[in-house]
Amino acid sequence: MATSLVIIDDTDPLLVYSADFIASTQNISNDATNGLLYNASQHFTKKSNGNLTFKFSGTSLSLFGTNTQVLIPGTNNTYDPQWECYLDGESVQTSMGTTDPGNNFELCSANSLGDGPHTLMVNVIQNTNMFSVDYILYSPSKADKGDTLNNMWVGADDPGFSYGGNWTTGFDRTQLTDVVGSSVSYTFNGTQLSWFGSYPHDFGRQATTCSYTIDDQAPISINLQGFPPTNNDSFSNQMLFTTTPLSAGIHTVNVTYNHEPTTDARQSPLSITYVTVSKAVVGSPNSPSSSGAVSSPRPTTDSSNPSTSAHNRHIGVIVGGVVGGLLSLLALLILILYGRRQRWGKQFRLSKYWTTFFERSPGSKSSLEPVPIVVMTTKTVTTDYDIWEQRSLVPKAAQVSLDFTASYPPSVSTSVDGHRG
Q1: Which residue of 69, 89, 103, 155 has the lowest C-beta tally within 10 Å?
Q2: What's phi and psi for 25, nearest 5 deg?
Q3: Gap between the Cα atoms of 243 and 289, Å rounded
Q4: For 310-336, how does the pLDDT look when each residue is reduced to its tens digit (9 = 90+)?
C-alpha cells in the first residue's frame, strides 16, 4: 500500500449502490479492537445480488468495511456473506475466509494498476449477514495533481513525518515510543487533521499523556488510554486526537510523548499508524503522491548524543573546506585558459592579415610562400584596421620589391617603416 492515499467515504456520491443498500450510522460491530467506523457512517445490505460501482483514476485501490463473516454450519470453508470484486472486468483479490470481527476490514484490493481511469464493481453473491461498506482508499493519478480532495490518508512511514528520539516499528508499520521527550512532526496542506495509532499488548498499559501543537501555538494535552493488566488484547485504528478546523493552507503538527513520572509501571506508548487530512491538495507538501510507491520508515535518531552531533559538524567543516579549495583552483584555471585564448585569438587575427599583406608576388620562390615587402611608412601597425589601411597606401611598385633576408612574420609591435623595431 502506498503511503499517501485518497479516502472516499461511503456517503460520497462517487460510490453508486444498488437499491438494496441502506445508509446507516450504527456501528454493527461490538468489537472495538480495530477502531470505529470512518466518519461514523456505512452502507450495508442483507440481500444477495446487491452491487456497487466506483470509478476513479489512479494506480491502486482498497475497499474497507465491517467484517461480519461467519462459517456456515455443516460446511468446511463456506462463509456468509460472500462477495466478488472486479476491476475493469477482471476479478481481484478478496478477503473472504476469516471470522475476525471488527471495522476497518479490507474487503478487496488491487495494486500496480496502470495510471488511468478504472472501474470497481462489487457483487454480493450470498448474504444473510450484513455486507458492510465503509470507505475506499486509492492512489490518485498524476493527472489529479493540484486538485483539492475531500480527505487524504497518510501512513506513518510516509517521508513527510520527521521522528525525533527513540521509536519502534510495530504491526502494520505503526511507529511507537514510550521514551519521554520523543516526538514526531508532520507538515500538511489541508483544513483538519485526525491522528490514529494503536495500543499493542506488549507495551505498557498504564494511562499517560502526550501533547501536540499546531503551527507553534500553545501545546494541547491529550490522554493516552490505559488498560487493565489482565487485558491482553491489542487495539488498532484508535483515534488519539482531532485538531480543530484550520484555515486552508499549509500547517505543521508536532506531537511529544510526556510520560507520567508518578509510577514505575510501564505506560501506554505514543503511536501513529496514519493520519487523515481534510480537503488535502494533491501535489502539495506531503500530500498524496502519484507514484504509489511505498517508502520505508525514516531512521530514528538519538538527539541526546552530543558527541555524534559534534563529529558530524567537524566532518562538515572539513568537507566544506576541501570543496571550496577545489572550486577556487578550478576558477583560477578557467581564468588562465580564458586569458590565453584571448591573446591567441588576437595574435591569430593579426597574423592572418600580416600574411595577407606580406603575401606572394610574381617572382617569389613559391606561389604559396609568404615573403615580407619593404614598405616605407612611419605609422605603427597596432590593429587589424591599421594593417589594411597601410596596404592601401603601398604603391604597386613597392609591392614587388622583395627582401628575402627579412624575417617573417614581423612582431606585432614592429613599426612598418622598413626597419626592425
Answers
A1: 89
A2: -110, 5
A3: 23
A4: 444 445 546 566 667 778 788 888 877
Q: How confident is the model at residue 80 (pLDDT cuts 50, 70, 90)?
A: very high
pTM of full prediction above 0.85: no
Other CB atoms within 10 A of residue 170 CB: 20
Q: Identity (one letter) of the amino acid at 380?
A: T
Q: In this structure, are strands 42-45 and 131-133 parallel, antiparallel, or unpaired? A: antiparallel
Angle subtended at Cα 417 by Cα 416 and Cα 419, rounded to the nearest 5 degrees: 95
Structure-model confidence comparison of residues 254 and 388, the more confident one: 254
What does the angle CA 98 – CA 104 – CA 172 come to, to the nearest 5 degrees?
A: 85
- CA angle 316–319–321, rounded 5-degree value: 105
Quote the crossing angle between the two packed helices 306-357 and 384-393, to the nearest 10°: 0
Which residue has 577545489 as its cell numbers?
326
**31 with 54: CB under 8 angstroms?**
no
Residue type, 276: T
CA atoms within 13 A on the CB side of 313: 5
300 near 226, Cβ under 8 Å? no
Count CA atoms within 13 Å of residue 202 on its CB side.
5
pLDDT band at 3 (very low <50, low <70, confident <90, very high): confident
Q: Which of 199, 216, 150, 173 is nearest to 10 (CA)?
A: 150
Residue 139 contacts residue 59 (beta carbons within 8 Å):
yes
Name the grid cell of 145: 495533481
How many whole angstroms from its chain centre is CA 409?
A: 66
Total Cβ atoms within 10 A of residue 374: 15
Tell which residue, 111, 117, 183, 195, has the closest CA to residue 153.
195
Residues 6+ apart with CB under 8 A from 415: 378, 379, 380, 381, 421
The four Cα atoms 139, 144, 150, 153 give a dihedral, to 10 degrees, of 30
> Assign residue 255 a region: left if phi > 0, alpha if psi is -120 to 50, beta otherwise?
beta
